[in-house]
Design brief:
The chain is α+β, with helices and mostly antiparallel strands. Helix content is 23%, strand content 29%. It is an enzyme of class 2 (transferase).
């Protein structure tokens, strides 16, 4: 399909790259594409960023049929722009589409559309240390209809946002709170899909964590409320007695791109790495025995998020004396060096724009 490009009549001033927040500023243009049963995915276009007109009865507003992704574009030392594993993001998005009864799309075509949008908006990719251009591909149901069924029509759009560090405090350990009253998702549902409802379901417990003085919620499984699943909107890792452990993918855990990258790097370095069920009791026992060395989260936004404190019930444990552990630090440095083009890419993860 031919991508049409309509340029904005006037351009916004670029923000100071040294004072960027996260997810509050958006670029001049966006990508849009539509789906109809008789046309399939059609009319791919780049046009000025702006509101999407929809009727109050639009199905996504009532039944939540939507999926999205999150990835970043980085400015490399030579001034070029590059992506990190975008094919994996579009593949995962298609899996989310499958689970939400949304028509799948051509992943190669979607990547080319994204690259074209980035070429139009290349001046928006910041160059200050630790900054990037956050990319949010999204698909929403657009039928004007009140009734519980899959929509017949859809809108695929991509918006861009220059961002700084995800956490205002930067790369420092966070405090996490284990909830025993709420669950994020259950096996057999859509926990492994990147869909808005999963994040809405996390808000209440997240607010409770903040009221207790904690940054993120550590989620337990929705059946036995015993096994660790995710932390906030990230995957979680534990280093116990020299072994890097992360919960196995079971249908209720999002298969993170950064999670997969962490596992690949650890294995390439010859570290003992395991994907398996791990209970919160095992984590607490490991701390009591002195075998719990590190805890950290992984995700696109924060990359690696070290954990300095964990609260479970009335018990509070400190990890790595509240400092960044050596394994989290090495992974963060290795991943960001590849993402920003400061180091060779032995895995073939970088996609130049």
């Amino acid at each position: 399909m031919q991508i049409t490009v309509s340029k904005a009549a006037s351009l916004k001033p670029k923000p100071d790259p040294h004072h960027l927040g996260f997810g509050t500023i958006f670029t001049d243009h966006m990508f849009n594409m539509d789906y109809a049963p008789d046309k399939g995915w059609h009319n791919p276009r780049i046009e000025p960023y702006g509101p999407i007109a929809m009727e109050p009865s639009t199905m996504v507003l009532h039944y939540g049929q939507a999926v999205f992704e999150g990835l970043k574009a980085y400015r490399n030392p030579s001034g070029g722009v590059q992506l990190f594993r975008p094919q994996a993001n579009f593949k995962r998005m298609n899996h989310s589409c499958h689970l939400l009864c949304i028509p799948e799309y051509d992943e190669g075509m979607a990547l080319e559309c994204l690259k074209e949008l980035l070429r139009v908006e290349q001046d928006w990719v910041p160059d200050a240390p630790g900054t990037s251009l956050y990319i949010r591909p999204t698909i929403i149901a657009t039928d004007p209809f009140l009734g519980v069924r899959a929509s017949h029509t859809y809108r695929f759009f991509i918006i861009l946002s220059p961002v700084g560090a995800y956490y205002a405090a930067g790369f420092n350990p966070v405090k996490i709170w284990v909830t025993r009253s709420h669950v994020r998702a259950v096996r057999g549902g859509v926990g492994e899909a990147k869909t808005p409802g999963n994040y809405a379901a996390s808000l209440y417990a997240g607010e409770m964590a903040h009221k207790h003085g904690y940054t993120q919620v550590l989620w337990l499984d929705g059946v036995e409320q015993k096994y660790v699943e995710e932390v906030g909107a990230m995957n979680i890792f534990f280093v116990i007695d020299g072994e890097v452990i992360t919960p196995e993918l079971n249908g209720s855990i999002l298969p993170g791109i950064t999670r997969d990258s962490v596992l690949a790097l650890c294995r390439s370095w010859g570290w003992k790495t395991t994907e398996r069920k791990i209970s919160i009791d095992e984590v607490m026992d490991a701390h009591r025995s002195g075998k719990l060395q590190e805890i950290f989260g992984s995700g696109t936004a924060a990359v690696i998020s070290p954990v300095g404190e964990l609260k479970y019930g009335e018990e509070i444990i400190s990890v790595t004396e509240g400092k960044v552990g050596p394994i989290a630090m090495k992974l963060y440095q290795a991943l960001t060096d590849i993402q920003y083009g400061r180091a060779p890419d032995p895995m073939g993860w970088v996609e130049p724009v």
